[in-house]
Design a protein that fits this description.
The chain has 278 residues and is mainly beta. 11% of the residues lie in helices and 44% in strands. The protein has helices spanning 2-17, 23-36; strands at 49-60, 67-73, 76-81, 88-92, 99-104, 111-117, 120-125, 130-135, 141-146, 154-156, 161-164, 169-173, 180-185, 196-202, 205-210, 215-219, 226-231, 248-253, 260-264, 269-277. Helix 1 (2-17) runs antiparallel to helix 2. It binds calcium ion (CA). Calcium ion binds at residues 70-71, 155, 198-200, 251-252. Residues 70-71, 155, 198-200, 251-252 line the site of calcium ion (CA).
């Protein structure tokens, strides 16, 4: 029942805000409803731990940035933005929110998740089946790969790329070829978990936004089991909300400090947060 409610809530958000909701997304919701009735997998994980958060610091965020990818590297936030005609890769000074380096995507591309590995930045596109590769220092495009299906979130463990496509699957890809070597199917203690969106590799686990929810799940990359659920409800104060903003999206982690940052599409702030077990 709770799952049905979640699906209905997701549909409501999708069709009311119009963000990236399309006919294909509606079809995905319908498909997920059908799959939700299928039998659970044989080996069910234990119940995930529940977490909440505390805001440590509020940072400025460009309210025109439709955040689709976010990571931290050596004192800067890197952001991939979406929508046709306003998709970009940008390097941002976190203290001021100023964009210090950027490159635009051609109008036909809708930018999605980003990740940095071995001096290169990879950027997905939503339905165009193309991943762009940039020199991380110059933002010069050095190549691209094609892939099947949609591109949503992207992260890395420092060796491989981990990519979501809005389904319950995360694909482990070879950064040299973009070939999918392994598929991680994400499950909690009751069912498969769909709409995995923006990703972040944190301390040996994959953290994933669930599309349309202010919720992040922690995933064991070996088993796909959800080990924890972080509820980010109430993150924004009412005065920080704007009528045109879209859903919660974007997780970044600074491995040097352990700091964690989250934001949303067209939000005016990025929040440094501490995660607390309930
Ligand atoms: Ca991220």
């Amino acid at each position: 029942m709770k799952y049905l409610f979640t699906i209905l809530a997701a549909m409501g958000v999708m069709f009311s805000c119009g963000g990236r909701g399309t006919a294909s997304k509606a079809a995905a919701v319908s498909g997920a409803q059908e799959r939700a009735t299928s039998a659970p997998t044989a080996e069910m994980p234990s119940k995930p731990r529940n977490y909440t958060y505390r805001i440590v610091k509020e940072l400025p965020h460009d309210p025109e940035a439709y955040t689709q990818g976010l990571f931290w590297h050596e004192g800067y936030l890197y952001e991939g933005t979406g929508r046709n005609g306003s998709s970009s890769l940008r390097k941002v000074d976190p203290a001021t929110g100023r964009v210090v380096q950027s490159v635009e995507l051609e109008r036909k591309y809708f930018g999605e998740g980003i990740a940095m590995l071995d001096g290169l930045i990879y950027q997905l596109t939503w339905t165009e089946g193309r991943a762009f590769v940039y020199d991380a220092a110059t933002f010069r495009r050095t190549g691209s790969f094609s892939y099947d299906g949609e591109g949503w979130g992207l992260t890395t463990d420092g060796r491989r790329l981990y990519m979501s496509d809005g389904s319950e699957n995360i694909f482990v890809r070879d950064p040299a070829t973009f070939r999918a070597e392994r598929t991680i199917t994400v499950t909690n203690d009751r069912r498969n978990l769909y709409y995995l969106n923006e990703l972040e590799w944190i301390d040996g686990e994959i953290w994933a936004n669930i599309y349309t929810l202010a919720e992040v799940v922690k995933i064991d990359p070996e088993t796909g089991h959800v080990t924890g659920i972080i509820d980010f409800g109430g993150l924004q104060s009412p005065s920080d909300r704007s009528p045109r903003q879209d859903v919660f999206n974007g997780i970044a982690h600074d491995p040097a400090t352990g700091n964690i940052y989250v934001t949303g599409k067209l939000w005016n702030k990025i929040y440094q947060v501490e995660i607390i077990e309930k």
